[in-house]
Specification:
alpha/beta; 4-stranded mixed sheet; 15 helices; 23 strands; binds shikimate-3-phosphate
């Protein structure tokens, strides 16, 4: 149990960096593993999800040399090509990582050597839906078995060369889209993947860096041609989703000014920025000029935020997949804004690391915020900048890193200390989160 003290009159001021992007990191280690030749990954994060994916890749016989640095690790990965992976003698445990499990399903289902593997995760991941990935892969010929006919891990995958053709996703999910694209790398013919809504495109960008032949046909559709990957160098920027906790902290704690350097600003990830700007947030984006015009690389830049009076907004529709991970912290911004914020079309939040709609309802309700839960969202009445008045003093992170961190930011503007059970879940994406928060507030006291 961690005690979180309010800041009262103190502000947050300073310049920070956040851990590197876990979505990009997990793709980087997987693609390096199946590429031919050596890859160099700079700033591989120490967070739980990327580390568990790295561990799984090692169990497939891929040698990874690690140079430790203060902020992350630099990895040298001796890629084995698809044919060089070894059949793992142990279960592959990706722990809390949905990206690790779902992308591995695609990568292994299309393995041309008939490699057999069992994939599993922690208590939270073993409850999350996997049929959305298993079913379309099976349509391409994949052999995947699991509890409830492939809905729940542990899952067994027997690799084989899959058919190409075309396939449409039934859920707006980058994990699902990516699993299909990865399966297409070894298919017998090109595979066209059409997604329901535009979701993050890190897989598409990175595959091109590794030399794959991928055509972006329109904003929803891409075609992957059977391709060999060649080792390359990947430099991972800061995670925008992690930066967002400090963006909202800067916006809601009076007199704050925070700079966050070297953040990934891929437009399929940064819809939360548009939302916060529309709410009246004072946020400056300084894009790294050399990258901003090239759609085949990840754009990066610095963010500067200062305390702002926020107003309510409606969040719904096709923007949702591009801010899916930021909704918990956006709810907190809404709870401090003037007016009523309505979030709709966000039912996917119910099948994340926890049911995040329920978790945010509970958190906001116990902070004294007027909030209603809908099947696909929340209705939040903002306090117009007034401090939260918690009803109780114990908050539960519920196995969910983003809920733990949202509670951490909320504590800054409570009118009394609160206790957080499960603060260590922040380590899944952001080791050192609470220490950084302390440092930023101490620097300004
Ligand atoms: C991710 C995609 C999103 C996101 C998750 C990471 C990815 O999940 O919530 O944190 O790396 O592709 P869905 O694709 O299931 O929405």
């Amino acid at each position: 149990m961690k005690t979180l003290n309010p800041l009262f009159t103190k502000s947050l001021n300073g310049s920070i960096t956040v851990p590197s992007d876990k979505s990009i990191a997990q793709r980087a280690i997987m693609l390096s593993a199946v590429a031919s030749g050596t890859s160099f990954i700079k700033n591989f994060p120490l967070a739980g999800d990327p580390q568990s994916t790295l561990n799984v890749v090692s169990k497939l016989g891929v040698q990874v040399d690690i140079e430790k640095t203060a902020t992350g690790n630099n990895l040298t990965v001796l890629g084995k090509g698809f044919e060089g992976l070894i059949e793992p003698s142990e279960v592959l445990d990706v722990q809390n990582s949905g990206t690790g499990l779902r992308l591995m399903m695609g990568l292994l289902a299309g393995n041309p050597n008939g490699l057999f593997a069992v994939l599993t995760g922690d208590e939270s991941l073993r409850k999350r839906p996997m049929k959305r990935v298993a079913d379309p892969l099976r349509k391409l010929g994949a052999q995947i078995f699991g509890r409830q006919n492939g809905e729940l891990a542990p899952l067994c995958v027997q690799g084989r060369s899959l058919s190409g053709g075309s396939i449409e996703t039934s859920v707006a999910s980058a994990q699902l889209k990516s699993a299909l694209i990865l399966a297409g790398l070894n298919a017998q013919a090109p595979l066209t993947v059409k997604e329901l809504e535009t979701s993050r495109n890190h897989t598409e960008i990175m595959l091109q860096t590794f030399g794959a032949s991928l055509e972006q046909i329109d904003s929803l559709t891409c075609r992957i041609h059977p391709s060999k990957l060649i080792g390359c160098e990947i430099n991972i920027p800061g995670d925008f989703s992690s930066a967002c906790f400090f963006l909202v902290a800067g916006l809601i704690v009076p007199n704050s000014k925070i700079k966050i350097a070297n953040v990934g600003l891929n437009p399929t990830r940064t819809a939360a920025l548009e939302v916060l700007l529309s709410m009246g947030g004072k946020i400056k984006t300084i894009k790294n000029a050399s990258q901003s015009t090239n759609t085949k690389t990840e754009s990066t830049g610095d963010l500067e935020v200062e305390f702002s009076s926020l107003k309510a907004i409606e969040i719904k529709g096709s923007i949702i997949p591009n801010l899916i991970d930021e909704i918990p912290i956006l709810c907190l911004a809404a709870a401090q804004a003037k007016g009523t914020t309505i979030i709709s079309d966000a039912q996917e939040l119910r099948v994340k690391e926890s049911d995040r709609l329920k978790a945010m309802f509970k958190l906001l309700d116990s902070l004294g915020v007027k909030v209603q839960e809908k099947p696909d969202g929340l209705i939040i009445e903002g306090s117009d900048g007034n401090p939260f008045e918690p009803k109780g003093n114990i908050f539960e992170a519920g196995h969910d890193h983003r809920i733990a961190m949202t509670a951490g930011i909320a504590s800054l503007i409570c009118n009394k200390p609160i206790q957080l059970n499960g603060s260590e879940w922040a380590n899944v994406s952001f080791p050192g989160f609470f220490e950084l928060l302390d440092k930023l507030s101490n620097e300004t006291s």
